[in-house]
Design brief:
This is CopG protein. It is built from four helices and seven strands; from the N terminus they run αβαβαββαβββ. The protein is α/β, with parallel strands linked by helices. Strands 2-1-3-4-5-6-7 form a seven-stranded mixed beta sheet, sandwiched between helices.
Length: 170
Amino acid sequence: MNVRRPTQKKNLSAAVFCRKNHTRKYLLKIILLIMFAFVIAVANAEQKVPQITVYKSPTCGCCTKWVKHLEANGFKVEAHNTKEMKSIKQKIGINGKHQSCHTGLIGGYYIEGHVPAQDIKRLLAEKPEAAGLSVPRMPMGSPGMEGHRKDPYSVLLIQKNGDSKVFSSY
């Protein structure tokens, strides 16, 4: 009885093939997991980028510079050019003494005027009970109003009742 048995060499190559195939499947799973983790990380990073809606006059150069200041500091800006700034400020409830040339909305707060990006980030981190931040008027040296002169100014935290207190000073 002559039973043909596979040679040792054939058994060895089949075993090597199985191991290689198993290793390939394992590596493919690892690569897919890494790619999935990367996609999730990118999606989370995009969610953490603060997004602000800005209403501004189409002819205001300092408003455009302020938008660029926000973008340079990590904000995603949705800018709307409008000639109805007065009605927007009224609708939001911004007191006349706290008004400036542009208005932003972010995280349930309004941002009025040339507020530095770092103060907006601080507001979002601290989440105070307030209506928003304001830099009344248009002080020279504030973001968007850069020039050779730098006037001192304060960023005001506006309470929901309309009162204000200094949030930061420059």
